[in-house]
Design a protein that fits this description.
The protein has 260 residues and is α+β, with helices and mostly antiparallel strands. It folds into 3 domains: 99 residues, Putative Large Serine Recombinase, Chain B, Domain 2 (Hect, E3 ligase catalytic domain fold); 35 residues, no CATH class; 108 residues, no CATH class. Helix content is 28%, strand content 17%. The strands form 4 sheets. The protein has a 4-stranded mixed beta sheet with strand order 5-9-10-11, covered by helices on one side. It has a 3-stranded antiparallel beta sheet with strand order 6-7-8. The longest helix has 16 residues.
Amino acid sequence: MRNDPETAPIVRWIFAQRLAGHSLARIARALNDMEIDCPSAADPQRNAHRSGQAWMVTTVRSIVSNPRYTGRQVWNRQPTDHELLDPSNTGLGHRQVQRWNLPDGWVISSRPAHPALVSEADFIAIQGMRAAREGSAPERRYLLAGLLRCGLCGRRLESCWSNDRAAYRCRHGHTSANTPSLERPKNLYIREDHILAHLLALYVLLTGSAHGRRPSAPLGAEDVIAYLRAHGITLTYDPETRALRTDTPKAVKVIIDRAR
């Protein structure tokens, strides 16, 4: 899409939308709603490995992180490697595979090699958005990451930081490139400390006992979390009933008291 007169305006629009603060998912949804061909549909020969069906969040991310659009040439961004089809039978030969390199492995030309679609200042500003978000809170910790599911749609809850506290939420497809259904339920949000306070009760229901530990080493929330992870147990939170239930055959549940 770099020098194509038909697709260049789309690239400029994507960068402008990102600079305006719109999320990658919102940009992808807008492109799909406008029925604009994604790169693999606009140029299927260069993107034979893609489906060509729709814009994806990863497609938009790839565009706004590609320094080629500043006019620079970039090498080693996605090098081609060769790997054995079957390591146990070298006679079957090799296949070509492409893997993305991290930015510190890219080789970028020192001078412009073609007309730019975005200024270097704007490109750097966009890269800084993600760097600032990822580096703003190194001390953040999510004890329940990966253990919680939404009781409304079944998706795994995503970690978030709100009011200096760890929390979890489900936006029910808000971060998807697809336009959400009008019947999409209300967004779910639960603070981590509201759940931690009830984990011991959940553990007692699961195991039938909270004993077996010395008084000097009482069972804590992190012990229960370790137990859940070791046994592959996930928890589902239902905001309507304020119930936290397990996916075990016992299907035990506790009521979360949010009035804290």
